[in-house]
Design brief:
The protein has a domain at 8-74. The chain is elongated, with a radius of gyration of 22 Å. It contains three helices and two strands. It has a two-stranded antiparallel ribbon with strand order 1-2. It has helices at residues 32-43, 49-63, 77-98; strands at residues 8-10, 17-19. The structure holds zinc ion. Zinc ion binds at residues 11, 13-14, 16, 29-31, 34.
Length: 104
């Protein structure tokens, strides 16, 4: 027999007993509020309305099996871009050191 679905889970944030549905992903939290509280606790990032939407969309992708269920919410595009810019700056700095143009 394949692993049986639990009939109940305890919310990872508030420990409320939650009934597990017949189908779909086995929940970790009792509510979006608890999911968001956990996200805030893990990241120490205050949640904006935009963040909440991102988390909700990510949960939908997990529910739909589009992304692995254990994959964390990816960073914001603006954060990724800022990181890449910083990296490019470093590379450019190193390149200037290695290939110092000769003064004329
Ligand atoms: Zn809860």
């Amino acid at each position: 027999m394949p692993d049986r679905r639990p009939r109940f889970i305890h919310c990872a944030t508030c420990d409320t007993k939650v009934k597990v549905g017949e189908t779909g992903r086995v929940p970790t939290y009792c509510s979006n509020a608890c999911r968001q509280a956990a996200f805030y606790k893990n990241t120490h990032t205050p949640l904006s309305a935009d963040d909440r939407r991102r988390i909700e969309m990510w949960e939908l992708l997990k529910d739909g099996g589009v992304v692995p269920a254990d994959m964390p919410v990816p960073p914001k595009r603006s954060e990724v871009i800022a990181e890449l810019k910083a990296e490019l700056k470093d590379i450019a700095r190193e390149a200037r050191v290695v290939h110092k143009p000769k003064p004329k």
